[in-house]
Amino acid sequence: MGRLRALVFTSIGHFTNDGATSFLPVMVDVLSSLRGTTPSEVLVLLSLFYFTSAITSIFVGMRGDATGSPGGLMAVGIGCLGIGLVGFGITLAWASAGGLFTWALVCDVVMGVGSSFYHPLGGSILQTAFGKRATGRALGVNGSMGSAGRSLYPSLFFLLAAGLSYPGSLWFLGAMEVCFALLIWSGLRNAESLKGNGGARPSLRESLSRPMLMLLVVAFVMEAAFFGVTSYTPIFLTTQRGYGVGTLLGAAITALYVTAIPGQPFFGFLADRLDRRAVVAISAIGAGVSVIGFIATTGLLSIALLALFGFFAFTGFPVLLSLASNYAPEGSRALGNSLIWGLGVTAGNSLGPVIVYAMVQGNYSRLGGSFEVMAAMAIASGAAALLIPKRHA
Fold it and tell me: The pTM is what?
């Protein structure tokens, strides 16, 4: 498959995957505000989604390496996201008070499974098509489309809801996901990833080299810090800054995500030019400092610092997967990606809300202090990235 075709169709996949998955905190905030979902139920929905994705991701990566044809699998994941969004719309519209949380859990798990496909498979396609020297730039350009999806979906949801209602907006977005899945299947069904030199594929244990394990831990802590902040940002803005549930909240969340559109290509360029461990450190430390500024200020300056946080934080696809490609054995790129993205990024995402909840204990006035703790974790993870060996050992 040619480079351009691989980049175009994986970018479409990244747009629709990240648009749907990063929209989850807003959707949970809507359930909380309109249907009275409790703080503990919010925690379960946020954490279960990412826990499900983290576990499923390992099997997706192994399957992608075994077949050497990841495109069709990617379409399956996007389709699951669409089904989950439609289910959330049905839950919001018709679920009884007693059954609301149960149905929300089912949709949550379906979307969690769907979200596990894109990153290890899309990364593997691009790593194969572009090679190590241009991997960072390809992942960065591709990642910017994921950021475009993250920035667009919240505002699009609220705009559609004004005419279609909240459930109708979710149904529309779910149908759009299914259409994207069919488009991706048609474009990537012949995509390939490297399967090695014809011998046995490296085992999970062989893929977990010392540098890969250290990178996994750094990614886990860093992403737990990042998502502890982003998962509760809609609730923080609603309850502590008076934004309410509406277009103002959608605009603020868009500001959080939109800066990663130029940020991901920028960090992808750095990953091909500098020591990739240093680029991870810049991302984590910059994000942590930005969060501290966001909490310490109000008004437009606060939103500008929230946007700066997004610029630094949403760089994992080009930065972490570029560094992972230094350590993954030949023939296990999808598995290597799934280890870093599944057990590192996504599992960290599942823990972040738990840490914030443990500090908040249902009292949202404590969110500011909990965000500062998460910022310190991010800064520490950035410093730890510099301790990872530079090459596979």
Answer: 0.79
